[in-house]
C-alpha cells in the first residue's frame, strides 16, 4: 500500500509540472514562429522597389494570413504575437512558483509515507 501511495504522490507531482512545461514550450514555439514570419514579412514590405504582386506572393509564401481585408492582412497575427509575448512575460514567475510548489508538495508527501 505504501508503494502505491508513493507512486500516486509522484504522479500527482509529475503530471502538473509536465503540463506547465508542455504549455510553456508550445507557447514559446508558436511565439518564435510568429516573430520569425512577421519579421520576414516586414523585410519584404520594407524592401525598396518591387512589384506589389511579387511582394504579396512572397508574403503568402511565408505565412497565410487568417484574414485578408485590404491593409489589415496580418493584423490577427500581430495581435496574437503581442498577446503571446505578454502572456509569457506575465506567467513566467507564477509558473515557476507553481511548479516548485508541486515538486515540494510531492516530495514531502512521499517522504511522509516512508517516515
Secondary structure elements and pairings:
Blueprint: H1 2-46, H2 52-62, H3 75-114
Helix pairs in contact: 1-2, 1-3
Note down, in words, how this protein is organized.
The protein has one domain (2-114). The chain is mainly α. Helix 1 (2-46) runs antiparallel to helix 3. The model has no long low-confidence stretch (mean pLDDT 86). The two termini are 14 Å apart. The chain has helices spanning 2-46, 52-62, 75-114.
- Strand element count: 0
Provide a count of the helices: 3
User: How many domains?
Assistant: 1
Distance between the termini: 14 Å
- Which class do the helix and strand fractions yield? mainly alpha
Please give the radius of gyration in angstroms: 23 Å
Q: What order do the helices and strands follow?
A: HHH
Tell me the overall shape. Answer: rod-shaped
- Low-confidence stretches at least 5 residues in length (pLDDT < 50)? none
Q: Can you summarize the main beta sheet? A: none
How much beta, percentage-wise? Answer: under 5%
Average pLDDT across residues?
86
Oligomer: single chain
Determine the fraction of residues in helical runs and give it as a percent range.
Answer: over 70%
Supply the key terms.
115 residues; mainly alpha; 3 helices
Outline of this structure?
By secondary structure, the protein is mainly α. It has 3 helices and no strands. It is rod-shaped and about 75 Å long.
Amino acid at each position: 500500500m505504501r508503494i502505491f501511495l508513493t507512486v500516486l504522490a509522484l504522479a500527482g507531482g509529475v503530471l502538473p509540472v509536465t503540463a506547465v512545461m508542455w504549455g510553456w514550450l508550445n507557447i514559446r514555439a508558436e511565439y518564435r514562429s510568429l516573430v520569425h514570419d512577421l519579421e520576414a514579412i516586414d523585410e519584404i514590405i520594407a524592401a525598396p522597389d518591387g512589384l506589389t504582386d511579387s511582394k504579396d506572393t512572397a508574403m503568402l509564401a511565408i505565412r497565410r494570413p487568417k484574414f485578408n481585408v485590404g491593409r489589415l492582412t496580418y493584423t490577427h497575427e500581430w495581435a496574437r504575437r503581442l498577446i503571446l509575448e505578454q502572456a509569457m512575460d506575465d506567467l513566467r514567475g507564477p509558473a515557476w512558483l507553481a511548479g516548485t510548489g508541486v515538486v515540494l508538495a510531492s516530495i514531502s508527501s512521499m517522504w511522509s509515507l516512508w517516515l
